[in-house]
Write a structure and sequence with these properties.
Oligomer: heterodimer
CATH superfamily of one domain in chain A: Butyryl-CoA Dehydrogenase, subunit A, domain 3
Largest interface: A-B, 42 and 41 residues
CATH architecture of the largest domain in chain B: Up-down Bundle
Radius of gyration of chain A: 20 Å
Number of strands of chain A: 9
Helix content of chain A: 40-55%
Distance between the termini of chain B: 50 Å
Radius of gyration of chain B: 22 Å
Shape of chain A: globular
Number of strands of chain B: 10
CATH superfamily of the largest domain in chain B: Butyryl-CoA Dehydrogenase, subunit A, domain 3
CATH topology of one domain in chain A: Butyryl-CoA Dehydrogenase, subunit A, domain 3
Number of domains of chain B: 3
CATH topology of the largest domain in chain B: Butyryl-CoA Dehydrogenase, subunit A, domain 3
Shape of chain B: globular
CATH architecture of one domain in chain A: Up-down Bundle
Distance between the termini of chain A: 33 Å
Strand order of the largest sheet of chain B: 1-4-5-8
Order of helices and strands of chain B: HHHHHEEEEEEEEHHHHHEEHH
Strand content of chain A: 5-15%
Strand order of the largest sheet of chain A: 1-3-4-7
Strand content of chain B: 5-15%
Number of helices of chain A: 11
């Protein structure tokens, strides 16, 4: 269903649609993957110019002074067109930096927003330990697994329950071990050995709060991209089954495929309502923390189901690397795994709602 | 912050909040305690005093226009009324008079039909039932065979209607009958008749449901004479008249609260039986709660779009499908929560109230079948919304 948008939001949605169409698309994503690059520099420059990194940053800090609702408006089309940019990560980092009142944070934020330096979150997934642990002292030791866009980052916003700090990627003791994901994205283990942070942003309770908020934004943002991936795959599948002829008629005339397509349609519709209602509740400060997990669990599940259904409808074409639908499947897989999948977030939802 | 799955995304504007508070206070003071949280069906006669109270307060027909005795309320106000009545476990009036035939008479009825039928629907004096289904006409309703042949100033009705909710309590039936057996397409030969069930030649027999109560009935018509003035809308236009019912009636029958109440019962029963310690149960419960949250978001989203006149064609079928299937899954979890008590015929006592998991589950089977099976709803979305070929 259409969203009820004000004038500014409608303009933003339209711009996002245009930018994603012009700078995204599965062909570009495939070319990047084949070239071993996880970031589309040209698309990223366009996103930075549009100012979306500062969507959830107050105007006095150089941002747009909008909310997560608006960030989601930019991310859904990005997902639909498989835009390979660190918008979710940079926007989340900018959000966190803008909530720290130090000069170092302000300086880092300015560089991030104008596109001169990419800072991505390196945050501890809730289901994973910290390995060696991060000492609350002058130097850092330990590892943060599954950091997105680490090879392209200039610095990390390291965020855990005890400490939040900025670390330069090139600082002594920092090692980035990158593994390619099936969609061409990367997940890296970032190791710190006797590393001196560039700036400590928060400790103790403040770090805990900042990390929790940062992780919420990341999960919601990935959920918005997953919504777009599901919608994009659904659109491709619909086009295909309307055209593809077997037994002398379009296969989309068969009820079994029609009902399968309807189930994807319903899932996407429900998730769009869910995502934007939760984003609005977060912006209004009226949300329950479990709502974030509901979004990430459900958008992960639906994107995988939608892409699987689309793959099946494409028959043997869906099994070829050349066809776009497979790339949507892989994108869903990568984004579902990032920042917690269905199982992890359903368990978290259970804990938070039974308390 | 405690999780309350019955109030998700309630974002009333100030006027709506005031209305909700007013309704809540009035319901608390006036609701008949003996009707609340019953594990068995409440038949229409037992509901009449409560219907009358709502009528006297002016809240019985929020969606009817004011000049026909309604409130002319917004959809949000209608939903608020439903929610506040349901919140205390009280029954809402049956929809056949107030939500189905009432609005159709307002839309398509003659002044005489309006004067005769609308007031007793409002007061609750007259109970109505819907005579659509036949043994050979379920999802394929246009194949119905019950016939009405014009004979002077009367129609002569012959045939058999079945699976009629409250048929054995009803005073009147609104029925789809075939008035032109040769019409092509078939639905062009159907008319809507208002039939007094006390007419000679009508035999009504209750049908026991899978749940064990007599919700249903079947009616046999043998040369039943129905005055010509009881034709609603033009002759052979019954299909169009019936389809004038807007999707907004789904907003109460498909309310997410139905699933929310079942999930809360499942939690309660799981505590009693110890199922609440099973990880599999917790995972299923959370998964259903997440689906309920999504459906609640969709529901509020749809209501606000409807309020702006922007409700899409997919809205009513989606509410029907998701509300029904989610309610069923919740009722199945309730039976699982009961563990070894799941198949027990009598109620389980929890504190001062009773739950009957199997009966709840049986009752939920109706919601994916009645008034258009979910498969038909999926066909509608496939063709009208997704544009898939026929």
């Amino acid at each position: 269903m259409e969203l009820l948008l004000n004038e500014q939001q409608a303009l933003l949605a339209e711009t996002a649609e245009r930018l994603a169409s012009a700078s995204g698309g599965p062909q570009r994503a495939r070319a990047l993957r084949d070239a071993g690059r996880d970031l589309d520099a040209e698309a990223w420059a366009a996103v930075v110019r549009a100012g979306w990194l500062g969507t959830v940053v107050a105007e006095r800090h150089g941002g747009l002074g909008l909310g997560l609702f608006e960030l989601a408006l930019t991310l859904e089309p990005a997902g639909r067109r498989i835009l390979m940019t660190p918008l979710a990560e940079a926007a989340a980092a900018a959000f966190a930096l803008s909530r720290v009142g130090t000069d170092a944070a302000a300086q880092a934020l300015a560089g991030l927003l104008d596109g001169t330096r990419l800072i991505v979150p390196a945050t501890r997934p809730s289901a994973w330990g910290l390995g060696g642990g991060l000492r609350d002292g002058a130097t850092l030791d330990g590892v943060i697994p599954f950091v997105a866009f680490a090879p392209s980052a200039d610095a990390f916003l390291l965020a855990t329950d005890d400490i939040a700090c900025l670390v330069e990627r090139t600082s002594p003791g920092v090692a980035v071990e990158t593994r390619a994901q099936v969609d061409g994205a990367t997940a890296s283990a970032v190791r710190f050995a006797n590393t001196v942070p560039a700036a400590v942003l928060a400790r103790g309770g403040a770090a805990h709060g900042l990390t929790a908020a940062l992780r919420d934004v990341l999960a919601l943002a990935a959920g918005a991209e997953l919504l777009g991936v599901a919608a994009g795959a659904h659109a491709l599948a619909l086009d295909h089954i309307k055209l593809r002829q077997q037994f002398g008629r379009p296969i989309g005339s068969f009820q079994v495929l029609q009902h399968r397509a309807v189930d994807t349609f319903i899932d996407v519709e429900l998730n769009r309502s869910l995502l934007f209602r939760v984003a609005a509740a977060l912006d209004a400060g009226t949300h329950h923390p479990a709502m974030i997990s509901a979004v990430k669990a459900r958008t992960s599940r639906a994107a995988l189901a939608a892409t699987r259904a689309a793959l099946q409808m494409h028959g043997a074409l869906g099994y070829t690397d050349a066809h776009d639908i497979g790339l949507y499947y892989k994108r869903a897989l990568a984004l579902a795994a990032r920042y917690g999948g269905e199982l992890e977030h359903t368990a978290r939802f259970s804990e938070l709602t039974l308390a | 912050m405690a999780w309350d799955n019955t109030t998700l995304f309630v974002d009333d504007d100030p006027a709506d909040r005031a209305f909700r508070a007013e309704v809540r206070d009035w319901v608390a003071a006036n609701v008949p305690a003996e009707l609340c949280n019953r594990s068995t069906r409440i038949d229409p006669p037992a509901l009449k005093p409560w219907h009358r109270k709502l009528y006297e307060r002016g809240w019985i027909a929020p969606h009817w226009p004011k000049d026909h005795g309604g409130m002319g309320a917004t959809l949000t106000q209608q939903i608020i009324l439903f929610e506040e009545i349901a919140r205390v476990g009280a029954p809402t009036p049956y929809p056949h008079g107030l939500n189905f035939i009432g609005p159709l008479i307002i839309e398509a009825g003659t002044p005489e039909q309006k004067a005769k039928h609308l007031p007793p629907i409002l007061t609750g004096e007259m109970t109505w039932c819907q005579g659509y289904s036949e043994i050979g006409a379920g999802s394929d309703l246009a194949s119905l065979q019950a016939s009405a042949v014009l004979d002077g100033d009367h129609f002569v009705v012959n045939g058999h209607k079945v699976w009629t909710t409250n048929g054995h309590f009803a005073d009147w039936m609104f029925a789809l009958v075939r008035t032109d057996p040769d019409a092509k397409p078939r639905h062009a030969g159907i008319s809507m008749l208002l039939i007094d069930l006390k007419s000679p030649g009508v035999t009504v027999r209750p049908i026991q449901t899978i749940k064990g109560d007599a919700e249903f009935a079947e009616e046999f018509f043998a040369d039943v004479r129905v005055p010509r003035e009881n034709l609603l809308g033009p002759l052979n236009e019954g299909w169009r008249v019936a389809n004038r019912l807007l999707g907004s009636e789904r907003f109460t029958t498909g309310h997410p609260r139905n699933a929310a109440v079942l999930l809360n019962k499942a939690r309660e029963v799981a505590e009693l039986t110890g199922t609440s310690r099973a990880p599999g149960f917790l995972q299923k419960l959370a998964s259903l709660e997440i689906d309920l949250l999504a459906f609640s978001a969709y529901y509020r989203h749809a209501a606000s779009l409807h309020g702006h006149g922007k409700a899409p064609a997919s809205m009513a079928p989606v509410i029907k499908i998701v509300g029904g299937e989610l309610g069923q899954r919740a009722s199945e979890l309730l039976v699982e929560a009961a563990g070894p008590f799941g198949a027990q015929a009598e109620d389980l006592s929890i504190g001062n109230h009773a739950v009957n998991p199997a009966a709840e589950m049986f009752e939920m089977r109706r919601v994916t079948v009645g008034s258009g099976a979910v498969e038909i709803q999926r066909n509608i979305i496939a063709k009208r919304v997704l544009g898939l070929p026929g």
